[in-house]
Write a structure and sequence with these properties.
It is a single chain. The protein is of the alpha/beta class and 255 residues long. It folds into 2 domains: 151 residues, Vaccinia Virus protein VP39 (Rossmann fold), CATH 3.40.50.150; 79 residues, no CATH class. It has 10 helices and 9 strands. The strands form 2 sheets. The protein has a 7-stranded mixed beta sheet, sandwiched between helices. Helix 5 links the parallel strand 2 and strand 3. Helix 3 packs across helix 4 and helix 8 packs across helix 9. The longest helix is centred in the last third of the chain and has 18 residues.
Length: 255
């Protein structure tokens, strides 16, 4: 089956990121990366169980931490967490992020995979006050050159810098002149380590999928190193097809 069919077979809440919670250590890494501090107003769009809000308020001492999620049950769990920890500078809102007022934000964590949602949020992000830092995971905001990267964490600062092309944006994320298999694997592994559960049993499988996606995208955009398909890429394409009945080779554009 094609990789799209495989992904479609998984629960949609997992694909959309709706039911994926970041580990606490990932929040801490993100907050250190974005230099979150006591002068910041922090927003977590899609805050889930509220752990990120609690850590931002309790450990990084932000002026205000606001969590927004459209899931009533998750907001209820998050409110209980803040009450238990006696956190007074945390605010939780059960709301569609498209309808939320985020105008006072100085730091925003935005981890969504729904492309239509991302595009709808762009005008809102662009109108935020100068210096506002928006942290995304895995990919930068569409058409924007990142200001800082500690992959898989990417920081985009208002006012945004427009990328002249997808090639320029991709190379700026990976900080290299071209992408080979080693780079693809290293960055895929970083992503898996950052967002995966410590007891997850499928880390290697996910890293293989992500490394193939990175390299194939680079190849199709003309920023892969060399013209030949690296042997490890060929081997992993074959492995997925033979043992998991997943086809990714068709994603490669023909020269």
């Amino acid at each position: 089956m094609k990789i799209e069919d495989y992904l479609a077979s998984l629960p949609q809440s997992i694909i959309s990121g709706q039911d994926v919670q970041l580990p606490d250590n990932a929040f801490r890494e993100i907050f250190r990366f974005s230099q979150l501090n006591k002068n910041d107003v922090f927003y977590h769009l899609g805050c889930g169980n509220g752990n990120g809000i609690a850590i931002a308020a309790e450990e990084f001492g932000v002026k205000k931490a606001v969590g927004i999620d459209n899931d009533k049950e998750k907001i209820s769990i998050a409110k209980k967490l803040l009450e238990e920890k006696k956190i007074s500078n945390g605010i939780l809102q059960c709301q569609d992020i498209l309808e939320s007022d985020i105008s006072d934000a100085s730091v925003i964590l935005f981890w969504f995979s729904d492309q239509s949602m991302i595009e709808k949020m762009m005008p809102k992000f662009s109108s935020l006050k100068e210096g506002c830092r928006i942290i995304t995971i895995w990919g930068p905001l569409p058409g924007i050159l990142p200001d800082m990267v500690d992959f898989p964490y990417i920081l985009n600062m208002v006012p945004f810098k427009n990328a002249s092309s997808l090639q320029e944006q991709l190379l700026s994320v990976f900080g290299t002149d071209c992408i080979d298999f080693v780079v693809a694997w290293e960055f895929a592994e970083r992503y898996t380590r950052a967002v995966g559960s410590p007891d997850a049993g499928n880390d290697r499988f996910l890293t293989i999928l992500q490394s193939l996606v990175i390299w194939i995208n680079a190849k199709n955009l003309g920023v892969a190193c060399g013209h030949e398909i690296p042997i490890p890429i060929k081997n992993y394409i074959s492995l997925l097809r033979t043992y998991f009945n997943i086809d990714v080779e068709y994603l490669l554009n023909e020269d």
